[in-house]
């Protein structure tokens, strides 16, 4: 008989009414898990609280200040307790260590003892440290999902120490790719403790659509050769190299249009670069887009590109495949485990502008079998990932 499992998910990456597209991939996984019978999930999304006395000076914290205390998102109860934060790299360890202390009153009210599993999603050690302290108090099984990034391989020895302690405290660790698992095992953990379960997407939302119709709905030119990238506009996503590669592609494909979708952390720098290279009119900065609009942007394109310097298992790439779009991406992280055939896309070295421009030209000139790509993409569904995660829960509680 299948038992009821109550799961407390902890993640700083999660949507709210103040930031509706933050951490949508975690929310999607939660939705897929809660769709399974006998699995009830509650989410805690700690939000850094910057005191008003320093908020103006730091120019940060306003969106977090506007986040409500709790919400119900698609039937999932989500709580947003505030965690004191002064920002800055020097406070990184302090933020992680102080999280259990500052949230202690909240957890007493919240009755963490009612849950069977504590599942923390980590980019740094903070959420896992919080889960460790809950485990110490209530003796609950803990699962950590490691999404990658600099957090799993921090540059400082002190941060490595706290990451190791956090990983050692978990009952089970989920790595989103084989490359992330390899980094986890460098901390000396038992390999049997680590399971690889990738991210996913929803085929009901991401599927091939008529390209002409998608462009009409978005007001995009019908004759353009459109390349799209969905990623936060930050250094690690390799967008400077992408703008440079675009200037080479434009010499052979004058009507090329690169659409960049994502939060604009380095947008001004990229705009200046595009202007210096004379490709300003060939770049559209679309900004952050609602998640349910991303399928339109993908289907309006001919090629999806993700030239990141590092990755875990990028959900945007899976969404592009489900829409039948060929991918040009760097051979980093979990991407190499996804693009296993040139039938689905082309891999290039990170930071290699020449390779990137040649791959984009090849992708724009090739006759791709979009239905085959979409069929391959559907293998990476959230439902498949949720079944594997549910099996981890059941194994821990057996």
Short description:
The chain is of the alpha/beta class. It is built from 17 helices and 16 strands.
CATH superfamily of the largest domain: Glycogen Phosphorylase B
Estimate the global geometry from the Cα principal axes.
globular
- The CATH topology label of the largest domain is Rossmann fold
Q: What amount of the residues lies in strands?
A: 15-25%
End-to-end separation in angstroms reads 12 Å
Structural class: alpha/beta
- The oligomeric state is single chain
- The main sheet orders its strands as 4-5-2-1-7-8-9-10
Corresponding CATH architecture of the largest domain: 3-Layer(aba) Sandwich
CATH class of the largest domain: Alpha Beta
Describe the structure.
The chain folds into 2 domains: 5-200 and 381-397, Rossmann fold (3-Layer(aba) Sandwich); 211-377, 3-Layer(aba) Sandwich (Rossmann fold), CATH 3.40.50.2000. It is α/β, with parallel strands linked by helices and 398 residues long. 41% of the residues lie in helices and 19% in strands. The longest helix has 16 residues, at 382-397. It is built from 17 helices and 16 strands. Strands 4-5-2-1-7-8-9-10 form an 8-stranded mixed sheet, sandwiched between helices. It has helices at 24-34, 52-58, 62-65, 92-102, 104-110, 126-138, 157-169, 178-185, 211-218, 239-252, 267-277, 294-299, 315-322, 335-338, 353-365, 370-377, 382-397; strands spanning 5-10, 39-44, 47-49, 70-73, 76-79, 82-84, 117-122, 141-146, 172-175, 194-196, 225-230, 256-261, 283-287, 303-306, 327-330, 345-348. Residues 57-62 have low confidence and may be disordered.
